[in-house]
Specification:
alpha+beta, 5 strands, 28% strand, 162 residues, single chain, 31% helix
Length: 162
């Protein structure tokens, strides 16, 4: 019984740690919608994922491009990818207007006031589930939370997976 309580406490702590407010995510999505990358794709409709993706794996991609970017205290030189257990993020998913779309946004957990939103563009409409292997271009947007209502876009990277 005590073990079950400890596991439940750790899961609740992780969920609370991972989620930002709807206001923060809405502000970040406004920044993305006004970005040149988003406008060049000609996106009309999109959906948001209920489940998070790994901050550490996404941050590693940013580190590969700019090793001097302050992304937390990680050893990215020896990073081989991590097995990540996704967390439900109701506040991000509450922004979705559609259940299925060709464009799907995924958010990471927040780490040292930084979070990343990744845009995946599929050929057919699909539910917001992160694929095991994605072929095509994706865009990752690195944000810094500056206050409870304000975010700053730090960097955008374009990744091509074959």
């Amino acid at each position: 019984m005590k073990g079950l309580f400890v596991i439940l406490f750790l899961n609740v702590s992780a969920i609370l740690y991972a989620q930002e407010s709807v206001v923060i995510y809405k502000e970040a999505m406004n920044v993305i919608e006004n970005s040149a990358q988003f406008k060049n794709l000609g996106v009309e409709k999109y959906t948001m994922s209920l489940h998070t993706i790994s901050y550490k794996n996404q941050a590693h991609a940013f580190w590969l491009i700019d090793p001097f970017l302050q992304l937390g205290d990680y050893d990215f030189e020896n990073h081989l990818g991590e097995f990540y257990q996704s967390i439900e993020n109701e506040s991000f998913a509450s922004l979705r207007k559609k259940r299925r779309s060709k464009v799907v946004f995924f958010v990471t957990e927040t780490d040292t006031n930084l979070f990343i939103i990744e845009l995946l563009h599929f050929k057919r409409k699909r539910k917001a589930k992160y694929p095991r292997f994605y072929q095509g271009k994706s865009y990752s947007f690195l944000f810094k939370k500056e206050s409870d209502t304000n975010v700053k876009l730090i960097r955008i990277i374009e990744l091509t997976n074959n």
